[in-house]
Amino acid sequence: MWQELGIAFCLLLVLEGILPFLYPRGWRETFTQLLQLPDRHLRLIGLASMLLGTALLYLLH
Length: 61
Prior knowledge:
membrane; DUF2065; 3 helices; transmembrane helix; DUF2065 domain-containing protein; mainly alpha; transmembrane
């Protein structure tokens, strides 16, 4: 199980690094806009992301 968790973490780092590498200016502008969002909106975005990821894992497994 630890090996799969390590693989998943490595893939997460690769995927998160794609946008800053390919489009740094747009990524920075988007990040700046995210910093200005209220905590409630950020929590809702995080919840939606977790639910979508869980649903996709369920469908793929």
